[in-house]
Amino acid sequence: MKKKMTVTCYVIVLIILSCVLPARSDGSDHKYKAGDPVPLYANKVGPFHNPSETYRFFDLPFCAPAHAKEKKEALGEVLNGDRLVSAPYKLDFMYDKDSEIVCKKKLSKEEVSQFRSAVAKDYYFQMYYDDLPIWGFLGKVDKDGKSDPSEYKYYLFKHLHFEIFYNNDHVVEINARTDPNALVDITEDKEVDVDFIYSVKWKETTTPFEKRMEKYSQSSSLPHHLEIHWFSIINSCVTVLLLTGFLATILMRVLKNDFVKYAHDEEAADDQEESGWKYIHGDVFRYPKYKSLLAAALGSGTQLFTLTIFIFILALVGVFYPYNRGALFTALVVIYALTSGIAGYTAASFYCLLEGTNWVRNLISTGGLFCGPLFLTFCFLNSVAIGYSATAALPFGTIVVIFLIWALVTSPLLVLGGIAGKNSKAEFQAPCRTTKYPREIPPLPWYRGTLPQMAMAGFLPFSAIYIELYYIFASVWGHRIYTIYSILFIVFIILLIVTAFITVALTYFQLAAEDHEWWWRAFLCGGSTGLFIYGYCLYYYYARSDMTGFMQTSFFFGYMACICYGFFLMLGNVGFRAALFFVRHIYRSVKCE
């Protein structure tokens, strides 16, 4: 019976993964003969400056094909807001067309108003031809010599010209441009007759099919962009070298003096009163308050760190090439589900190290610590998208697939990891014995409080990454293409090093001030960079972007809050691990009685 249930679960998981994993979106090496139909799909339309606010192509009154066929999409494509449907244009292989009429349409007053509103908001359209992206604008606003917006003229483009390049039997490149002379005046609310026209011109090229996507990735590798990226790397490296050099020199000298002093004190009179970090050796390994929550945070942080490393590996081997629709979202969902066992094992094993007994509650906390806020944010933002009828609203079937992944993959792996962690039988191995009663912490100045220390801890790591952050934001919340993953990986390594070093330094100064409650402080100081990144979100939204509207604003700040919270957990885990290693090392190096 158990074997049958196991087989059934595996079959269900395989079915889910087949729905999740995307089909190839690089053209699948399609070969065509002259006159063969080549698939052209219309994807979406939306305001150019609001990347999250996109709508179905035929939500606007374009010419619709007689038999519109929707393309089956993988989970990542749906999460990305893609809704591909067959377009009304016929672009047969190597078949030129000149001013072909798509349809003759009489636009009603409501449809004219709809188009005018779209043109005023700078709407763009996106299509895919043999899985190559096509972009274009719907119209233009004539503002020449007019200061009053009520005097602006609004025009709709009615002639679309496709220029397609081929190499033997492959489609290699496509460009779409609008005819600036073929305009329809839609300024006034009145019925308008429009002849939607398109032209097709085929040209031969020597570019091989295998390199057809390179033109999209080259835009982020232009010399002036690379100079800025390398300046960012140099800036970060200088920060790391100065910080690590300073901290290594200070800590090595101070610790050496401490070790000599404590060794001398042991040889001298024993009744001499101790001071400094050795003075609290009986309290420094006293288990923290809310140890179940700390263990859950470390488990979630370790899982997110593992997820990030896997994403970088996939990026560096070329999986996330430009316009590989939904590949990143698919990878995030699948890898997060498969790494949940790491979260369960880490949380349960650490919780049991701290002599915790209620490991089931600890696992529940671990499972909900990151997914809980993400789920609540998703529910709110999906409701907003449904209200706007945007493509960002997930269909019911997609929500069911995500729920099944959580129920049949994420949760079981979390439990299995938790059971393995509970049975790991490891011991904490504190170098010093903990006293029965905690020592009173002496009064400390305000700048040694948690919030000032977090501000100091977060600023340096953030200063090492803020230049690269702009390009990431411009890619995620804009239309810039980002493909320099090697530089991004170097910046990520620098971020980890700076976070670890600054947390270790602040932990030492905290212990030197005889404050033994370092556990939570180390985690909070390590994760504080996430708060700085969220502060950068405010700057980017108001100073560097043109995003507007309730939907785009809520999507930007809602999902960035989840991302920054993920960074907080991940970097908090890194900071805490570094601090724990350091504290164990220094107390192991002195004789504690």
Give a description of the structure.
This protein has 15 helices and 12 strands. With 593 residues, the chain is an alpha+beta fold. It folds into 3 domains: 182 residues, no CATH class; 201 residues, no CATH class; 123 residues, no CATH class. Strands 1, 2, 3, 5 and 6 form a 5-stranded antiparallel β-sheet that branches. It has a 4-stranded mixed β-sheet with strand order 4-12-9-10. Helix 7 packs parallel to helix 10 and helix 12 runs antiparallel to helix 13. The radius of gyration is 30 Å and the shape is elongated. Belongs to the major facilitator superfamily. Phosphate:H(+) symporter (TC 2.A.1.9) family.
The portion of residues forming beta strands comes to: 5-15%
SS content category: alpha+beta
**Number of distinct beta strands:** 12
H and E string? HEEHEEHEEEEEEEEHHHHHHHHHHHH
Q: State the helical fraction.
A: 40-55%
Low-confidence stretches: 1-27, 269-273
Count of DSSP-assigned helices: 15
Basic shape: elongated
Number of structurally distinct domains: 3
Mean pLDDT over the full residue set: 87
Provide the gyration radius in Å. 30 Å
Straight-line distance between termini: 58 Å
Q: How would you sum up the major sheet?
A: 5 strands, antiparallel
